[in-house]
């Protein structure tokens, strides 16, 4: 009888420990903002087109932080700093939240630029996509500068530059489509297509959506892409 009681107690402890463990939908966000002594870190997301704070943590001396948030579908969240005097920094740090342990290491002076984000598969893919398309963005800025500097009487030059600029942006769009097709089993695919200019060809949106896996179509961004395509077709 005493043995059964011991076994029962052991099983009860295991059940309690299991119930206290992290949920399969839980994101544990940890990190450090070097240089932050006093202030409040805000965890934010977009709900119904509005940016809202879903959690916050005060920083008093120790610049390390941690959050726990239920993530039903991976999506972009934001980390924001409110300093001790109440002034909000002019930068917001976006990251792809998902149900996993995620770590963000950054600095107060270069809050978004210095950020190193690990643990999020979609964030890694998004960083890769940004690196791939950065050359298109840089070249586009060059064309804009050249068009701006072209003086009067250089209409033919401006027209030629505008055409180059248009072809460049078309190439960037196709690169975005191809990247989304290559990663049709990740939430980053519909997110990338939703972030493209409105003028994007509807057939490419259809192509990407139709190749998404069943799970991704049912995700938050998968549903939004479907709604967006329907809106465009109307």
List keywords for this structure.
single chain; 234 residues; alpha+beta; Immunoglobulin-like; 2 domains; four-stranded antiparallel beta sheet; 7 helices; disordered N terminus
Structural account:
The chain is of the alpha+beta class and 234 residues long. It folds into two domains: 23-118, Immunoglobulins (Immunoglobulin-like); 123-233, no CATH class. Helix content is 47%, strand content 26%. It contains seven helices and eight strands. The strands form two sheets. A four-stranded mixed beta sheet has the order 4-1-7-8, with helices on one face. β2 and β3 (50-60) form a beta hairpin. α2 (121-149) packs antiparallel against α3, α3 (155-182) packs antiparallel against α4 and α5 runs antiparallel to α7 (220-233). It is globular, with a radius of gyration of 23 Å. Mean pLDDT is 89; it is low at 3-7 and 9-20.
Largest sheet: 4 strands, mixed
What is the N-to-C succession of helices and strands?
HEEEEEEEEHHHHHH
| Low-confidence regions | 3-7, 9-20
Number of strands: 8
Taking the alpha carbons of the first and last residues, their distance comes to: 73 Å
**What is the count of distinct domains?**
2
Could you state the oligomeric state of the chains shown? single chain
**What's the alpha carbon Rg, rounded to whole Å?**
23 Å
Mean pLDDT: 89
Measured as a percent range, the helix fraction is 40-55%
Classify the beta-strand content into a percent band: 25-35%
Give the helix tally. 7
Shape: globular
Neighbour order of strands in the largest sheet = 4-1-7-8
Classify the secondary structure makeup into a structural class.
alpha+beta
């Amino acid at each position: 009888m005493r043995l059964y009681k011991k076994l029962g107690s052991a099983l009860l402890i295991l059940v309690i420990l299991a119930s206290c463990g992290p949920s399969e939908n839980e994101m544990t966000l940890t990190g450090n903002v070097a240089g932050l002594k006093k202030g409040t870190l805000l965890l934010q997301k977009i709900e119904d087109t509005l940016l809202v704070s879903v959690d916050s943590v005060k920083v008093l001396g120790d610049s390390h932080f941690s959050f726990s948030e239920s993530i039903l579908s991976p999506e972009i969240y934001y980390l924001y700093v409110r300093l001790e005097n109440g002034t909000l920094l002019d930068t917001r740090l976006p990251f792809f939240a998902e149900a996993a342990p995620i770590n963000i290491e950054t600095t107060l002076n270069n809050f978004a630029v210095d950020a190193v984000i690990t643990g999020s598969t979609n964030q890694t893919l998004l960083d890769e996509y940004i690196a791939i398309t950065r050359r298109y963005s840089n070249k586009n800025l060059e064309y804009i500068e050249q068009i701006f500097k072209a003086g009067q009487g250089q209409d033919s030059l401006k027209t030629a530059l505008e055409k180059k600029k248009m072809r460049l942006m078309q190439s960037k769009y196709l690169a975005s489509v191809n990247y989304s097709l290559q990663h049709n089993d990740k939430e980053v695919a519909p997110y990338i297509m939703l972030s493209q200019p409105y003028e994007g060809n509807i057939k490419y949106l259809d192509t990407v959506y139709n190749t998404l896996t069943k799970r991704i179509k049912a995700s938050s961004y998968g549903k939004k892409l479907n709604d967006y395509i329907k809106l465009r077709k109307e």
